[in-house]
Amino acid sequence: MGLKLMCVVAHPDDECFAFGGALALAGDRGIETYVICLTDGQAATNRGDATTGEALGAIRREEFRRSCEVLGVTHNELMDYHDGRLEFVEFPVAAGRLVERMRRFKPDVVMTFGGDGGQNTHADHMMASMLTTAAFHWAWQAKRYPDAGTPHRAQRLYYVTANFHIPDRPPAMTMPWTVTLDIRSVRERKTEAFRQHVSQAPLMERTREFFEQYGAEEFYALVAAPDPQPARQETDLFAGLS
Fold first, then answer.
1. Which domain covers residue 80, as residue numbers?
2. Quick check: is 238 in a domain?
3. CATH of the domain at 134
4. What gap in Å lies between CA 39 and CA 60, rounded to an integer?
5. 19 near 181, Cβ under 8 Å?
6. CA-to-CA distance for 185 and 162, rounded, in angstroms?
7. What's the first-to-final CA gap in the chain, in angstroms?
8. Among 89, 50, 231, which Cα is nearest to 158's?
9. Contact by Cβ (8 Å): 152, 103
10. Residue among 14, 16, 40, 38 at smallest CA distance from 27
11. Number of folded domains in the chain?
12. pTM here?
């Protein structure tokens, strides 16, 4: 069996904005990928032509699907939680749904946001991090969710982080990185995936200069692995895995 990568995000466009390089690089290597998005982004500030939350959600679901297609994502799923309200979900139930998906997909590597909530310190991003982290650890514990499938131990959990702060935003308490990904070979594809999110065009315009300046690399922090080990710098999320 080949390697597998699972990515858990909060909103449509997170998959490309934050993780697009890693996903595209994995696809180019024949690594099976599965992106889970927890909400359909109905609470977004940028609303395109939508006049209702439901209409915006439908638009953003399709934008998410097209973005994943551009990135070469093998499987994508958009769940049914409410945008802007992930902090109020019933934590054990929501984490259990991710446990079931991890046990079914059996990823080698899982990646999500850090507890800082990303560069915009979004509470939904923080909750995506916490839910995914709990599910990562609970997925291999037989006593947890015994009806959610056969326990599976993924080999690594990564948080996305960054080497800059966005001006005019409260600076995130970013995690020091352990992986620097050179994404120059897929940089245009990441940008093209973001272009699929037409409803979020103003966001793309506001962040254009940051991608131009910093868009050649993505940064990740290894936060869990099976064996005790010192932190070390890598250039591959899958280094040493076969």
1. 4-224
2. no
3. 3.40.50.10320
4. 10
5. no
6. 19
7. 9
8. 231
9. yes
10. 16
11. 1
12. 0.95
> Is residue 180 within 8 Å of 235, Cβ to Cβ?
yes
Residue 81 lies in a domain: yes
Asked whether residue 230 is domain-assigned, the answer is no
Q: What are the tens digits of pLDDT across the range 139-198?
A: 999 999 999 999 999 999 999 999 988 877 788 899 999 999 999 999 999 999 999 998
| Nearest alpha carbon to residue 136 among 7, 2, 3 | 7
**Domain assignment of residue 231, yes or no:** no
From residue 135, how far is each of 28, 34, 35, 152 by CA, in Å?
A: 27, 15, 15, 11
